[in-house]
Amino acid sequence: MSGSVLIIDDHPVVLQGCRIVLEDAGLSIHVATSVEEGYQTFYRHRPGLVVADLTFQACGLTGLSLIRRIRDLEPATRILVFSMHDDPVIVARALECGAIGYLLKDTPSIDFATAVNRVQAGEPYIDHHLATKVAVLQNSQHLNPLSSLSGRELQILALLSLGKSYETIAEDLDLSYKTVANACSTMRRRLGFTSLAELIRFAVTHSDHMH
């Protein structure tokens, strides 16, 4: 397990703040500002710890795919999500994709350092309030329509809400057109919609939970 850490975030202020805290902890730092750059940097350096956001520019929740790809490549990698999203559906999906820690961006720097230390040691770290919300969600999933969707479906829905076509979504998420079309059909059936327009309207209505 490498003693270095990779920070993946497209906000310069966040990158700088994380770098200062982690350098003070004696860690070697790599940074990336996009999903593809993040994966390529990880592939080259294989850091033991990754601190990653979930959303990048206008690409919805592409960080979920990145987490899954990193874990597929190196299952022992410890991943801490550092995000503004406090929706328990998104938190649960990030943990399912392979993150072992989840921290909100309005957290004090001392808590960020604690989370990094815990995750680096292989211990789960999630704010108690968030953990409670996730537990409540899992006990009452039927109450939240988003909770029935997989991480990939949430990503596709997020991009639909931005007005992106199937072709563009397929390209953004490195999927086939058929996979995207089938996923949208599945979501329509599961959510009880009869048309793509209804699904898109739902995506736009719930976009605050996905961007």
How would you characterize the overall build of this protein?
This protein has 211 residues and is α/β, with parallel strands linked by helices. The protein folds into two domains: 4-139, Response regulator (Rossmann fold, 3-Layer(aba) Sandwich); 142-209, Arc Repressor Mutant, subunit A (Orthogonal Bundle), CATH 1.10.10.10. The chain has ten helices and six strands. Strands 2-1-3-4-5-6 form a six-stranded parallel beta sheet, sandwiched between helices. The longest helix is centred in the last third of the chain and has 15 residues, at 177-191.
Q: Percent of residues in beta strands?
A: 5-15%
The description of the largest β-sheet is: 6 strands, parallel
Amount of helix = 40-55%
Class derived from helix and strand content = alpha/beta
Task: Tell me the count of domains.
Answer: 2
What is the subunit organization of this protein? Answer: single chain
What's the SSE pattern?
EHEHEHEHEHEHHHHH
Shape: globular
| Regions with little confidence, pLDDT below 50 for 5+ residues | none
End-to-end distance, in Å?
A: 32 Å
Spatial order of the strands in the main sheet?
Answer: 2-1-3-4-5-6
Q: Please work out how many helical segments DSSP would assign.
A: 10
What fold name goes in the CATH topology slot of the largest domain?
Rossmann fold
Based on the coordinates given, report the CATH architecture of the largest domain: 3-Layer(aba) Sandwich
What is the H level of CATH, i.e. the homologous superfamily of the largest domain?
Response regulator
The overall pLDDT, averaged over residues, is 87
> Could you give the count of β-strands?
6
Radius of gyration: 17 Å
At the first level of CATH, the class of the largest domain is Alpha Beta
